[in-house]
Structure formats: C-alpha cells, structure tokens
Amino acid sequence: xxxxxxxxxxxxxxxxxxxxxxxxxxxxxxxxxxxxxxxxxxxxxxxxxxxxxxxxxxxxxxxxxxxxxxxxxxxxxxx
Length: 79
Hints:
By secondary structure, the protein is α+β, with helices and mostly antiparallel strands. It is 32% helix and 35% strand.
C-alpha cells in the first residue's frame, strides 16, 4: 500500500487593509482554517468561501503552495 504524502497545499485567501490572510470558519466553537491538500477538500470548502464572499462583499483567491520543506527541527531549536 502506498502511503499518502502531502506535496501541495491549497488555501482560500482573502485580503483586507492589513494584507492577505487565510480564510477560516467557526465550527463547534473552534476556528477551522480553509486549507486542503487535494481538490476534494477544496471542493467541499468552496461553497463556504462563496457564501462568505457574498456576505462580506470581499473576493477570495485559492492559492497553491508546493515548495515542501520540513522546518520542524529549525522551529523547535528557536523555542
């Protein structure tokens, strides 16, 4: 069996006066960032993003990130 490996991430991004930010929605009192590693997840989040855009009057983008770098050790050393 082949193990899945995340090579790309997609994020719903909106812009305000401070710049860009990852969109999120609240579910069960927890904020959920609107990101995914495949188009199945993006498809499931798209109606939520479209409704948020409609209500807020702000446009959004779906951005792809694909430069996988493991920074775990570098981050932990800083702490």
